[in-house]
Amino acid sequence: xxxxxRARLTDWLRAASGDAALVIEKMAxxxxxxxxxxxxxxxxxxxxxxxxxxxxATLAVSHGRAQEYALxxxxxxxxxxxxxxxxxxxxxxxxxxxxxxxxRVAGTAAAHRxxxxxxxxxxxxxxxxxxxxxxxxxHTITPPRPDLSFLGTPPGDPYLAFIRDQRAALDRQRNPRPxxxxxxxxxxxxxxxxxxxxxxxxxxxxxxxxxxxxxxTAVLDWEFSVWSDPHADLGWLCAKCWRFGNDAQEAGGIGPxxxxxxxxxxVDDTRVRWWELAAHIRWASIAxxxxxxxxxxxxxxxxxxLTGHMVPGLEWEILRMVEARDAx
Amino acid sequence: MLREPPEGLDLLxxxxxxxxxxxxxxxxxxKAFAARMVANAMAIAGREAAxxxxxxxxxxxxxxxxxxxxxxxxxxxxxxxxPGSADHAQAAALLDDMTRARCAVSxxxxxxxx
Lengths: 328, 114
Prior knowledge:
The complex is a heterodimer of chains A (328) and B (114).
Chain A: H1 3-17, E1 24-29, E2 36-43, E3 47-54, H2 65-77, E4 85-89, H3 92-95, E5 99-103, H4 111-116, H5 124-138, H6 158-172, H7 178-189, E6 198-200, E7 209-211, E8 216-219, E9 226-228, H8 231-238, H9 257-264, H10 269-295, H11 302-308, H12 311-327
Helix pairs in contact in A: 5-9, 6-7, 6-10, 7-10, 7-12, 8-10, 10-11, 10-12
Chain B: H1 8-23, H2 32-50, H3 55-65, H4 69-78, H5 88-106, H6 108-113
Helix pairs in contact in B: 1-2, 3-5
Organism (chain A): Neoroseomonas soli
InterPro entries (chain A): ACAD10_11_N (IPR041726), AGP_Transferase (IPR051678), Aminoglycoside_PTrfase (IPR002575), Kinase-like_dom_sf (IPR011009)
Domain Aminoglycoside phosphotransferase (chain A): 29-273
C-alpha cells in the first residue's frame, strides 16, 4: 500500500480504536482469495490484525465487506470460532475500497496440505467432529435478524429456492448446460419436504477453515452466506468435489462422515446427500462464471481459464450421482 | 503434409516436458503453481488438438431428441426426459457420451474413476 493511503489508514484506525498513538509497524499482503485482498497488519502494542478489502473484480454473488463484517459479528456472538471483528470502514476515501479489520488468527487453511495431514485440527476424527460443532453453532443463527437484513427474505422452501436460483444463473450464462439441467431436474424430482431456514455459511469447506495442531482456529470466507437448509453446509463439506483428492475421507477429505455428523448432532443423511449433488451443480456453475470473466475479457487470467475446464469432470460426477440415485 | 514437422502437438508435448523437468525445479517456490498451471493448460490444449470430431454426432442425436442444445437443455428442465419417459435412456446416453468426450480433453482423470 502506498504512503498516502497508509497514512489515512493509520489516522482512521487511531480514531476507530481510540488509540491516538497507534502505529502500523508492518503491512503485508497475505495470500488472499480471488475476490478479496487480505493484509496482515502488525500494530503497535503487539496487536496482530488482518485488514480485509475488495479486489478489483468482484463476483456479483458475494456480499460486500460491510455485510461480511455483520456476518462475522453474528457468528462471533453465536460462539463460532471466527477471528474477532474489530472495525468496519465503509468510506472508500480511506484506502480506495471498503474494508474491515479483524484479529489475526494463526493456522493453516491450504486444502491440499490439510487433507494430507493426520494431525492438523487435532487429528482427522477430532477435526471433523469440531467442524460439525462449528456448523451446529452457525445454524443457531435464525431469522428474523435485522442486522442481517441484506440476506433477504428467508425462503419458504430452501430446496426449491436453490433450484430456482441455479436455473436463473444458468439462464444468465453464455452456453446451455444440459448436464447441469439434468442434475437440477433430478433435484426437483427428489426434493425433500422443506425445513425452517437458518444461517448457512454456504462455503464451509476444506480450504476455508483454518486449523492448527489442536483444532479449528477460524471459520473463514462468509461472503456467500444465505438463509437455507442447515444440511446444505454439511452437503457442501462432504461433496466429493471438495475432498481435494482424498475421497476416502468423506468429510472434506479430512475425516469420516460419521464423526462429522456426531459432532454436529441431529443430521438427516438423505437431505445431506441431496445437497451433495446440489454442491456439484453449484460449483460447476461458479466455475463457468469464473471462466467467463476470462473469456469475456473482464479479467484475462490463466487460473480463471483453467477453472472452466473443471466443469466437464463435475458434470461426469453429476451424471453418475443422478444415475445412482435414480437406481436406488 | 505441406506443413513443416514437428507439428503443434509434438511441440506442445516437448515444450511441456522442458517446463516440468527443467524449468519447474529451478523456479522459486512461489512460482511453482503458475508453472503447473501453464503445464496443465498445455496438456488440455494438446488433448483438444488430438481429439477426433464428436460434436456432429452428438448434435445430430440432440436434434433428433429435442433440437439445438438450448432446446435440449430446456426440454430436460421441463421433465421431458425424466425416468419413465420414452426417451429417457437415449437422453441419458447422449449426455454420457457428450460428457465423456468433454472430459477426455478437460478432465481425463474423472473418467478413470467413472
